[in-house]
Amino acid sequence: xxxxxxxxxxxxxxxxxxxxxxxxxxxxxxxxxxxxxxxxxxxxxxxxxxxxxxxxxxxxxxxxxxxxxxxxxxxxxxxxxxxxxxxxxxxxxxxxxxxxxxxxxxxxxxxxxxxxxxxxxxxxxxxxxxxxxxxxxxxxxxxxxxxxxxxxxxxxxxxxxxxxxxxxxxxxxxxxxxxxxxxxxxxxxxxxxxxxxxxxxxxxxxxxxxxxxxxxxxxxxxxxxxxxxxxxxxxxxxxxxxxxxxxxxxxxxxxxxxxxxxxxxxxxxxxxxxxxxxxxxxxxxxxxxxxxxxxxxxxxxxxxxxxxxxxxxxxxxxxxxxxxxxxxxxxxxxxxxxxxxxxxxxxxxxxxxxxxxxxxxxxxxxxxxxxxxxxxxxxxxxxxxxxxxxxxxxxxxxxxxxxxxxxxxxxxxxxxxxxxxxxxxxxxxxxxxxxxxxxx
Length: 440
Fold this sequence. Notes:
The chain has helices at 2-12, 17-69, 75-82, 103-116, 161-196, 213-259, 265-290, 303-316, 335-353, 408-418, and strands at residues 87-91, 123-129, 132-139, 145-150, 299-302, 321-325, 330-333, 356-362, 368-373, 422-427, 433-439. By secondary structure, the chain is of the alpha+beta class. Helix 7 (265-290) packs parallel to helix 10.
């Protein structure tokens, strides 16, 4: 049963940690306040009952003794003075009744009998239960009967200001709880934002190393981790760039030697392999440099004019590239980085889809989106994320036979991340692939 109850309870909890903590503390405070109020009411009832018993016990004993000593003719004049809110004296035998029903009535009758003594021959009868009304009968020393009619009034109502004070107290506790939860959850939100903004060049947001001791230590550890990751990635990219750069010289010498050979099939095969090696080396260098795309200074640029110029350049080269939609306005953009990203995507679309369609818009959050679409074979849904990795090629549609090195999308992805954006791929309805670049 418990295994089924806890998942159901978790489904009803809010998603954020701050909201969950706030709900838990709120429920705890409400339960604590309710328990405190119940205990207060119970203690108040007990105290009021004890006070009432003591008061009635002593007052009745004094009143009975006084009426016993008064002449019979004067007793009626004193009944009004001895009357209280919850009881009154009646001269005579009173009304017939039944044995007492409630514990409180039997307790009060017993205490009255003990207070006045056995000489008055005390007995008690219940007259009615709803509302509760009972009589305690006495026999005075002159033989006259006397009845005490008791109508319990219950505990006096609580003061009107008490619920208001309790609500103000609860509101103050909730406000303090909200402030405490917010202060505790804010560093986690900042840590998540800093982690999402990490870049290979370590120019992402840094955590402020202040605040409480635990928060400061976590900030220092995060900043140190970011520096180590950046240093490690820079070393790997530097090694890749160095190897790729150093390979250009021997490849050039080999190409010169191959060109000096006699024309033939073997010469053409060697030159084709060298051309492929040169292309792979150039892509490796470009991939290593793409990690530093965020170092470019953003400039104010007319996006529509930028896309038109980019598409016109491809049209001048005879490439089937068209601008199907754009937006007007000025935006802060890293021009060279964006041009390299879109250039890689357009080249891929033309190579694998035969043509490219470029469009731009702003999403509901105001972010700039640029899409490059084609009508090629597309990519299996299970491999849409993997094709963004370096040197990964989809078998059958995007492989070495088409001249690809498997770095075009990886360069575009890394360059987009370096300038603070994102790249996602999606298959189009009716066939083809859509690559959407989103920039802040």
